[in-house]
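Consider the tokenized backbone below.
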């Protein structure tokens, strides 16, 4: 009888969201040419490019990856709308910025005024910065709302906190 109750209890539990490695399911492999990535984003029908500026020892970056960016729902939704890359805010890796200028990740982060991490910076299909969120979101729902804020173009008329309040979050 106990066995039957255990089986029934397991079926009554809500389905858990699938958890996947964000390195391979959220972020795209970097080629280091953001100008070229703009062309790819346009060809793929994306809204733009999302960069996550991070540091290896950043606890908030790790928390985002371990609790939000690893969720299949988040990964699938963001990959549908954006090309997504990481940028090491102290990295010496060579790269090409959105204007075709050769630089390093560290110099690019400074140019983008990254002072704390994580920074989620969205860019439109011309390479122009649109919306920015510094720090870790409170939840998966808030991060998805941030994405919708950009996709819907609400960043053009209101700050994210107003959009979030209007959405009842």
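A designed sequence for it:
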């Amino acid at each position: 009888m106990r066995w039957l109750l255990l089986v029934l209890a397991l079926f009554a539990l809500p389905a858990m969201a699938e958890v996947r490695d964000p390195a391979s399911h959220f972020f795209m492999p970097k080629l280091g040419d953001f100008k070229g990535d703009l062309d790819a984003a346009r060809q793929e029908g994306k809204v733009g490019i999302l960069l996550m500026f991070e540091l290896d020892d950043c606890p908030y970056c790790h928390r985002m990856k371990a609790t939000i960016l690893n969720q299949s729902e988040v990964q699938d939704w963001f990959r549908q709308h954006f090309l997504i890359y990481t940028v090491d805010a102290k990295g010496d890796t060579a790269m090409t910025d959105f204007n075709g200028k050769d630089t390093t990740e560290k110099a690019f982060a400074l140019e983008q005024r990254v002072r704390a991490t994580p920074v989620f910076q969205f860019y439109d299909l011309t390479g122009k910065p649109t919306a920015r969120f510094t720090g870790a979101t409170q939840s998966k729902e808030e991060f998805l709302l941030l994405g919708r804020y950009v996709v819907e173009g609400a960043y053009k008329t209101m700050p994210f906190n107003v959009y979030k309040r209007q959405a009842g979050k």
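The two ends are 43 Å apart (CA to CA).
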